[in-house]
Design a protein that fits this description.
Length: about 475
């Protein structure tokens, strides 16, 4: 071990900071948050440091460095831009056997300030021993995203109840199980929902029983459209806590790769035209049986679980069977495809409303796209509206006919975004008139989203990702668009 990690209690203890620039100010802020009494010594001070002195939160000495400043200090931070002065401070500290941190100078430091993940009273400190602070910072970001903010409140609760837990579970093994239950179960859930009283009550109630029942639950997680960067932090945490993951066909391998290594992954993907009901019944049964065995089940769905994802039906089933659940939203295909194809779905002056519709219907009819009461003779009833069709490519001929019958002009710009947000993304630009033949010509495949409305023409200019195909709609350009990487 190169450095010995130590957590120091600085409350009410004096820490000397030499230097009063912006770098020093950041350290001062950190020390104050740990409750230290901070003395700042410098020949001149940054306005922010002056303001702290005026507010009385620090003691400011505007003078040349004086080793006597160290007399009352437990710890020293040298944060000046003058290396010789920093060395002088470090030497003075060394002579008095006081630990000294020289900011960004591992060689001069007898103590280093780590990168910190603060879930007080839980603190995670990461150090690269001064060799590569960037790596430590990156690691901190990863850890920051993995541990949810409610963990701090849980640790504080455990601290308050420590004696009670020790008394109720005198055996180490039972006590460990109890702490595991605290981390996995409803107590953390209540804290996450900002209900500390409920959390405390659940804990006390569980302590009163001999053993706590295993707490299975199902977390419905939206995996987003494919790019793993579009998974939410909470989704990532759920994937890291999962015992079992029931995943859909649309979930990308890159997202699954982020899950806990020893989670059991079960592919329950459905194909359009397959035996839906039996597949859905199997999913319900799997969720229930795993959750009842006390496992944390993640039901992972492409995009958002509540947008054409049958998430609602799964929740209804879980509610009927008394199984606890949570929902983590995801970025739905419409939003991802709009963003990654440069199509502003509600651009001012072009579209005031947005419809998310499915072209796939249970009984194989096409969804009515506009109000049926609108007579087909009304000119352009949907000017100013963007329509997004999920599951539309397989039913493109019927969908197109329906839109024309509803009164949309044949020149209405449209786009199809295939594999939105994935490296192989292709965006086809056309008009309602040509979209079907163009889609055939380019062999567009599912998953793809059909977007209809003026805003799609903007995407021909603003597209920035993947490959662009087709011709600029409703404009004089007939030349094929350039392909961008
Ligand atoms: N719950 C999902 C939608 C499931 S329905 C969501 O919120 O996105 C499946 C349809 O979604 C596909 O047929 C396709 O139309 C669309 N889709 C999903 N992912 C897509 C992607 N990466 N690119 C384009 N379309 C996608």
């Amino acid at each position: 071990m190169d450095l010995f990690p130590l957590f120091t209690q600085l409350k009410g203890r004096t820490v000397l900071v030499v230097g009063a620039g912006p770098v020093a100010d950041r350290k001062i802020g950190l020390l104050l948050s740990a409750g230290a009494h901070v003395i700042v010594g410098a020949h001149a001070a940054h306005p922010q440091v002056q303001a702290r002195a005026q507010a009385g939160t620090i003691e400011l000495r505007l003078a040349p460095f004086d080793p006597a400043w160290l007399d009352t200090a437990w710890f020293v931070v040298a944060a000046t831009s003058n290396t010789a002065l920093n060395r002088q401070v470090a030497q003075a500290a060394e002579a008095r056997r006081i630990f000294c941190n020289v900011v960004d100078d591992a060689a001069l430091s007898s103590a280093q300030v780590p990168a910190i993940v603060d879930r007080a009273p839980l603190t995670i400190a990461i150090s690269s021993g001064g060799s590569a602070p960037v790596i430590a910072r990156r690691l901190r970001e990863r850890i920051e995203s993995l541990f949810e903010p409610a963990l701090g409140a849980l640790a504080a609760l455990a601290q308050r109840q420590r004696l009670a837990i020790r008394q109720a579970r005198p055996q180490l093994r039972a006590r460990r199980d109890f702490y595991d239950w605290l981390l996995d179960g409803p107590v953390l859930g209540a804290l996450r929902r900002q209900r500390p009283a409920e959390a405390e009550a659940l804990l006390t109630q569980a302590l009163g029983q001999d053993t706590q029942a295993p707490v299975g639950k199902v977390v419905l997680v939206g995996a987003g459209p494919g790019d793993p960067g579009l998974l939410t932090l909470r989704g990532l945490r759920a994937l890291n806590e999962a015992d079992v993951i029931l995943t859909d066909r649309l979930v990308s391998a890159e997202v699954l790769a982020l899950a806990r290594r020893d989670a059991e992954v079960i592919d329950v993907g459905k194909r359009v035209g397959g035996p839906h009901e039996s597949t859905q019944a199997r999913i319900h049964a799997l969720m229930a049986s795993h959750a009842r065995q006390g496992r944390c089940v993640v039901r992972l769905k492409g995009g958002d679980p509540m947008i054409f994802g049958r998430g609602g039906e799964e929740l209804q089933y879980l509610r009927r069977h008394g199984i606890a659940y949570e929902v983590v939203p995801g970025i739905t295909a419409a939003l991802a495809c709009g963003a990654y194809a440069g199509i502003p779905l509600t651009q001012r002056g072009h579209a005031q409303s947005l419809t998310l519709a499915t072209a796939h219907r249970r009984h194989d009819t096409v969804a009515p796209t506009t109000a049926r009461s609108t007579p087909a003779t009304t000119p352009a009833p949907d000017t100013g509206r963007t329509h997004v069709f999920y599951m539309g490519v397989e039913r493109l001929p019927t969908l197109r006919q329906q839109l024309l019958a509803d009164g949309l002009a044949p020149q209405t710009p449209c786009a199809i975004v295939e594999n939105g947000s994935r490296p192989e993304q292709r965006v086809l630009h056309a008009t309602l008139d040509t979209i079907e033949t163009q889609a055939q010509a380019h062999a567009i495949q599912s998953p793809a989203l059909v977007i209809v409305g003026d805003v799609t023409a903007l995407g021909a200019e603003l597209g920035w990702f993947g490959t662009t195909l087709g011709t600029l709609p409703s404009r004089a350009h007939d030349a094929p668009l350039q392909t961008c990487a």
